[in-house]
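Form P-L/3: holo structure prediction, ligand 2-deoxy-2-amino glucitol-6-phosphate.
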Amino acid sequence: MCGIVGYTGTQNAAQVLLNGLTKLEYRGYDSAGIAVVQENSIAISKVTGRIANLRAKTEDGRLIPGLTGIGHTRWATHGAPTDQNAHPHASNDGKFAVVHNGIIENYMELREELTQKGYHFESETDTEVIVHLVEMYYTGDFKRAVMKASARLSGSYALGIVCADVPDTILVVREASPLILGVGIGENFFASDVTALVAHTRNAIYLEDGEFAALTPDAIQVYDCSGHPITKKTSRITWDIQAAEKGGYAHFMLKEIVEQPRAVEATMAPRLRNGQVVLDDLDIDLTGIRKIVITACGSAYYAGCAGKYTIEKLCRIPVTIELASELRYADPLIDEHVLLIVLSQSGETADTIAAMRECQRRGAKALAIVNVVGSTIAKNADYTLYTWAGPEIAVATTKGYTTQLTVLYLFALYAAKSLGTVSCQEYKRLLAALRALPKQMQNVLDMNPGIPKLAEKYHDTPSMFFIGRNTDYAIALEGALKMKEISYIHAESYAAGELKHGTIALIHEGQPVIALCCNEAVTEKTMNNIIEVKARGAEVLAVAFKGNQRIISLADDMIYVPKVDPLLCAVVEIVPLQLLAYHVAKENGCDIDKPKNLAKSVTVE
Ligand code: AGP
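OUTPUT (holo model):
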């Protein structure tokens, strides 16, 4: 996600902003910029790439003197990483500048309205509509103009806005994106998180959704959503910088596990409009498609394994899943009647890039589902749907996997609707179930406080088995990978029906088996497999819907998940497995965010 900072006081604002943005670099970004209020004007400097480029361009801020300003590190979501798309964005009259963290979901209609009213857009971003709205509503009252502009926005936004007519004032607005005020002496600050504040002050005011504030060097006034002044308490920041970067969590991985409901919401919400799945940038003609091939590596491949069930069930088109490292050399049966779906968090995985190019060479169109805007896969695919998970820092993917699945679910519904292979009633039912996913992911985080205790029980083992059937088996694949890559325990996932064909020979006294039982069509069968492995001494930890009474008598331990349609269950059912792997790795003293031998993006064969 983006990072925003702001300063008003007696120091060189540009230097304070550059240092603040440097503290936000860990969040991941691809461009940056600052705006400083000068005599009746606003000086803006923006770059693609690192903060170092901005320091060089502004000679460490010396070239744009001023005492009040705002700054931004951008993680591209709408529009590639370019100077034009970098923030801050200026109004046409140059009187205002804005920085923004979040996603404006109704930006397309606002952009149309503003364009018709004669406002000119410099960028492709959703953010730019904000600064033109402020200019449109400005009649001399800065606060009123910002209030009216904010009232037109839907989505998530933490905003910092400056106005050349009031050079020592910054207005900030918070809606569903974090925004913290730093209280100084003769100076005041704002930022996306405390890491950019603690060098100056540990006195903070945390804005709530709907609140906004006016900052001047000597005062901070907070207002409620209707513009009435309110009193907020000042908190003391006790975190050290390292803890602050992780939002107070011990590891980025845990922070990113917990962020998943918000990441899935951010990926899904802008694409659910008026009771429809709307995939703006997708104009694929599916009528000529006879087969869908999904290709990826690692967890992205396992996301495809889970998504396959949903696409096949709804679209009635055969879906095969191919490991990219195999597909690229397999002389694959690919032609113009194949739609290739390419899954990748980084968009830079060498095998996946090569597989995509080989399939395109054979006539297939490629639909990329990636998290990094402007990445190689995004740039070279025929169609691209972004996941809006924000930067994923931990090597072991979590929100990357669940947001990829979210886009696969959206695609399946969108395609089934256009192919006429889903009834209106089923479409509505699944749309409602989609909307409920973020809340159910949050529920599963809240339903299982006992996972650390389970990790204590199961962490000291040389191997683990993850078993399941149908969609549960696909989820077991990812659950086993999570366990392997961060706890270094040899974990294997097996189709539960396969046990008797050989693997059950490995089940010995005390062998941990994680049994996934969330697909009601096959739960009975999996419970029989639990009985089989229990009879050979296994210790079984079952994952099941709350209310499945019979399984309680069979398993040694339980993890509960809310009841979710099996076609959409993976994004919910994987969460406790991510947490289990995390806590087992913690018990084993592993380097959770940077597991040995692994890289965040495998850009070589
Ligand atoms: C997952 O936890 C691993 N980090 C790895 O398997 C990863 O999913 C794989 O390398 C694919 O990466 P990508 O999604 O960036 O293409």
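COMMENT: The first strand starts at residue 3 and ends at 8.
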